[in-house]
Amino acid sequence: MLANTTFLRKISHSSQELRFNNIKGSFNGSDIMRSFEGIDNLPQCFEFLFSSHENYTFEENLERLVEATNNISPTGKKFLPSKSQIDCIRDSVSRATSFLASKEYGILDDDLSKRVKSVESEIAIAAFIDNVNLRGRIIEYLITQEDDLKDTLIRCLRDKTPLPEMFTADKLGDYGREFEHYLTETDIKTKVLFLSSNPKGYNIDKLLSFLSEEKSVYLIYVVAIDDNKHISTRLCSMFNRQLLSATRIIKHWAGRNSRGVTQYEGKVLEEIVFNFDEDVDVADAQDFLTKCLRA
Questions:
Q1: Contact criterion met (CB below 8 Å) for 65 and 23
Q2: Which of 39, 64, 104, 182 makes a 20 to 30 Å CA pair with 15?
Q3: DSSP for 42-89?
Q4: Which letter, b or e, does each residue of 123-142 get, where b requires 16 or more Cβ atoms within 10 Å of its Cβ?
């Protein structure tokens, strides 16, 4: 069985001094999870399990373990929408389909494509960074930002010198853009085609809070890189039929003040880029929102 920080239920009750700033304790064999979100913790499943583990930082797992061990809740607040906000969340499906058929979709897609094109050499270099979280943050930053840190990142990647420290805000999306009738947040997901991965999705409470706003539209921008350093992209709605079928709700990190997060199946991200079906199944999308609200 895998027994890293992701697959521990808690630290043993003899470890009552475990805190966010006091990392000490031990665990018993019974503290190791036998399954993770329906996937058995067995050797034949290790590839999927480890790729899931790579999505989360040590700090995220530490918060969960402290809460589970000592009943100490991390900071954060569960989003509790009003009735009018729930109605707005429900309307987000029709807003998404309206946006996909609008000229604004093409404008946003062109905007992101030009941003990728301007740093495609650096993205191809960054794709070979081993640390999954660092790789994703760097590529997202290269695409979305225009500042001195971006210039430093480009120089370091080209010269193969040590990268600067990256402190990025843990926001719902990586790139926001407002139009007259739409307020968009786009999450950039990097898929390195020659590596196995199941990327982390979004925090469900943050998603619901955003979708409760008028004009809100949440999108995913998949950036796929092959072993020849060729880059392909696709902009799609979170409600896209292909994407939604590959979106798993992970309650592993859901404490009393969280609905949890989502995770994508990496293979489907490839399909979205190369064999895209733009369909949105409205009934399935509403069912998914119901699951999120009830989580």
A1: no
A2: 39
A3: SGGGHHHHHHHHTTS-HHHHHHHHHHHHH--PPS-------HHHHHHH
A4: bbbbbebeebbebbbbbbbb
How far is the C-alpha of 256 from the C-alpha of 41, rounded, in Å? Answer: 25
The model's pLDDT over 231-251, given as tens digits with 9 standing for 90+, comes to 999 999 999 999 999 999 987
The answer, as to whether pTM is greater than 0.90, is: no
DSSP strand pairing (231-237 vs 216-225): antiparallel
Three-state SS for 289?
helix
Q: Residues 17-53, buried b or exposed e (16+ Cβ, 10 A)?
A: ebeeeeeebebeeebebeebeeeebeeeeeeebebbb
Find tokens 């609200």 and name the residue. 293
Alpha-helical (H) ranges within the chain are 46-53, 58-70, 83-100, 103-118, 120-126, 132-144, 148-159, 204-211, 241-245, 266-274, 282-294
pLDDT tens digits for 78-127? Answer: 899 999 999 999 999 999 999 999 999 999 999 999 999 999 999 999 98
**Residues 260, 249 contacting (CB under 8 angstroms):** yes
258: tokens are: 């969280």
Distance CA 97, CA 105 (A): 10
For the beta carbon of residue 276, count every other beta carbon within 10 angstroms: 14
In Å, how far from its chain's centre is CA 66? 23
Cα separation, 198 vs 49, whole angstroms:
9
Q: Are strands 183-192 and 216-225 parallel, antiparallel or unpaired?
A: parallel
All residues at 6 or more sequence positions from 191 whose CB lies less than 8 Å from its CB, including other chains? 197, 199, 222, 223, 224, 225, 266, 269, 270, 273
Q: What angle do CA 207, 101, 246 make, to 5 degrees?
A: 45
SS3 (DSSP) at 290 = helix
Helix (H, G, I), strand (E, B) or coil at 209: helix
